[in-house]
Design goal:
CATH topology: Cytochrome p450
Strand order of the largest sheet: 1-4
Number of domains: 1
Order of helices and strands: HHHEEEEHHEEEE
C-alpha cells in the first residue's frame, strides 16, 4: 500500500479530528476503520509476505489432471492463489472493495496469514497493529511517491525493486 487511497486517508483524518490532544485510539475507533483494513488486506494479497509452504495430503486427490497420493508433500504458493483471476477479478489491480463481502472469497484463497487450523496465531494482533500504524502514518506524515515503479522482487521475502519507493515527511500538527 505504497500510496494510501484517498478514502482511507479521509477516514483516518476524520478519526483524528475527533480526538483531543494526546488521546489514544480506542476499540471503537479501530472498529470504524473498515476501509482501512480492506486496503491493508489488499496489500499482502498483491505481495504476499510468505512465498508458500508445505502440506501433506490427507487423501488421494486429483489436481489439474495429476493424481497426488495420500501422504505426499505438496508445496502451495500464496501469490499463485492471490493472483488467480478465477478467484480475484483483475488481480493486478489494487482494489480494496474486493473484500466488501467475505462470502465472495472462497475459503483458503486469501492466505497471507495461512488458514484453517494453521492460521497465524498473531493474525488479530497484526490486524490491530496494522490499523494503528496506518492511522498514525496517514495522520501525522505526508507521503510522496518517489518512483512510479511499485514492483517487488523476492529474495526470499518481498523487496521493492526501488530502494526507497516513498518519502515520508512529518506534518505540522495542531495537536500532538
Amino acid at each position: 500500500m505504497i500510496s494510501v487511497p484517498m478514502c482511507a486517508r479521509t477516514q483516518q483524518e476524520e478519526i483524528a479530528k475527533r480526538k483531543s490532544s494526546g488521546d489514544l485510539l480506542t476499540w471503537e475507533d479501530l472498529a470504524k476503520m473498515k476501509y482501512t483494513w480492506k486496503a491493508a488486506m489488499e496489500t499482502p494479497r498483491m505481495v504476499p509476505p510468505v512465498f508458500g509452504g508445505f502440506r501433506k495430503t490427507l487423501e488421494d486427490i486429483e489436481y489439474g489432471g495429476y493424481q497426488i497420493p495420500e501422504g505426499w508433500q505438496i508445496f502451495w504458493v500464496a501469490s499463485m492463489t492471490h493472483m488467480d483471476a478465477d478467484i480475484f477479478q483483475e488481480p493486478s489491480k489494487f482494489n480494496p472493495a474486493r473484500f466488501e463481502n467475505p462470502a465472495d472469497t472462497p475459503p483458503h484463497s486469501y492466505i497471507p496469514f495461512g488458514g484453517g487450523a494453521r492460521i497465524c496465531p498473531g493474525y488479530e494482533f497484526a490486524r490491530i497493529e496494522t490499523l494503528v500504524s496506518i492511522h498514525y502514518l496517514v495522520t501525522r506524515f505526508a507521503w510522496n511517491l518517489c518512483s512510479k515503479d511499485d514492483k517487488f522482487s523476492r529474495d526470499p521475502m518481498p523487496v521493492p525493486t526501488q530502494e526507497v519507493p516513498i518519502q515520508i515527511m512529518p506534518k505540522k500538527l495542531d495537536k500532538v
